[in-house]
Write a structure and sequence with these properties.
37% helix, Beta-lactamase, 335 residues, 11 helices, alpha+beta
């Protein structure tokens, strides 16, 4: 065997050894052992899956309740709608889409923009997170949100607001004259080869834009969403989401300090951002520990799906942030 072939063989063995060690680091992590609440973990780097495991009898075909990752899908759809001329920009005012706001006695509502809704800074009514069913049982949740008194000055502060986030689905439907699911299927999912998903409607007849009822997708398809963002909105040489919108997501003009997630996270356009050990990270987070994490400098995507039951939801999210992700992050430096 030539020296060149010997060197190549040695390099392949070394890479295999590194990958095996990385897999073992995750597979032997105590938090993941016999944990009934963890369903899937997938990690890709340079558009290649470097780690994939399903737990508790789930598999590649399973649809997972993605909770507020629904907002991340909605953000991409808003960008597509702007690019296609259905919406002018994120500075478009709600009153131009919901003209009844002109008759509201609180004239501040007339200046609320799509951006403020996507930044969780609209000042609109927000549901009590401890009493979600009260909001879900409203016969017209979107109408109620628009008509209820403001709870804060628009644009002045961050307050996580599922009720206002649902308005984005209503906005898409009114602007495009297509329901949100159909618009997503035509302009986002079909170009990505995503054919297997479920999406629930709210009682107002619009597909949920908040994540309280949620879109349900395969983990592998959510990974495609993350890869699409890292690749500037391009999938298989086709521009699916405009590059300018992806840049706005990754480098937002206006952001607000978030109250949870990774420590010192900020929030903008339905995504979180944090500098983690000196590395810029953009991520989506859903109740119970659903995460879509993009690490541009590693060209890496991390997806995890977990149980959404309320009892352990917050501890599960925290455990992923503090126990699981540090191992993944360390191993990504080797993969």
């Amino acid at each position: 065997m030539s020296i060149r072939k010997l060197a190549l063989s040695a390099a392949i063995l070394l890479l295999s050894s590194i990958k095996l060690t990385a897999q073992q680091a995750l597979d032997t992590l105590s938090y993941l052992q016999n944990n009934p609440n963890v369903y899937s973990i997938i990690v890709s780097k340079d558009d290649r899956i470097v780690y994939q495991r399903f737990y508790n009898n789930y598999n590649e075909s399973s649809l997972f309740n993605d909770q507020s990752l629904t907002k991340n899908i909605g953000s991409l759809l808003i960008g597509i709608a702007i690019d296609k001329g259905y919406l002018s920009s994120v500075e478009e005012r709600l009153v131009d889409i919901f003209p009844d706001l002109k008759n509201d006695t609180d004239k501040r509502k007339q200046d609320i923009t799509i951006r403020q809704v996507m930044n969780q800074a609209s000042g609109l009514y927000h549901e009590d997170l401890r009493r979600i069913p009260d909001y879900l049982n409203l016969p017209d949740p979107s109408g109620y949100v628009l008509g209820a008194p403001l709870v804060a000055e628009p644009g002045k502060g961050w307050h996580y607001n599922n009720a206002a986030s649902h308005l984005l689905s209503v906005i898409l439907t009114k602007a495009t004259r297509m329901d949100t699911r159909s618009f997503a299927q035509k302009y986002l999912f079909e170009p990505l080869g995503i054919t297997h998903f479920d999406w629930a409607k709210m009682r107002d007849g619009y597909y949920d834009g908040s994540g309280l009822l949620s879109i349900r997708m395969r983990s592998l398809d959510m990974l495609k969403i993350g890869s699409l963002i890292l690749n500037g909105g391009v999938y298989q040489h086709k521009q699916v989401v405009p590059a300018a919108w992806i840049n706005s997501i990754l480098r937002p003009e206006t952001s607000y300090q978030a109250d949870w997630g990774f420590e010192s996270s900020i929030y903008a356009l339905d995504f979180y951002h944090v500098v983690y050990q000196g590395t810029d990270i953009t991520y989506g987070m859903g109740w119970g520990g659903q995460f879509l994490i993009m690490i541009p400098s590693f060209h890496a995507v991390v997806v995890i799906n977990e149980n959404t039951a309320d009892a352990n939801a917050i501890p599960q999210s925290n455990a992923f942030i503090h126990k699981v992700f540090p191992v993944i992050y360390a191993q990504l430096k080797q993969w």
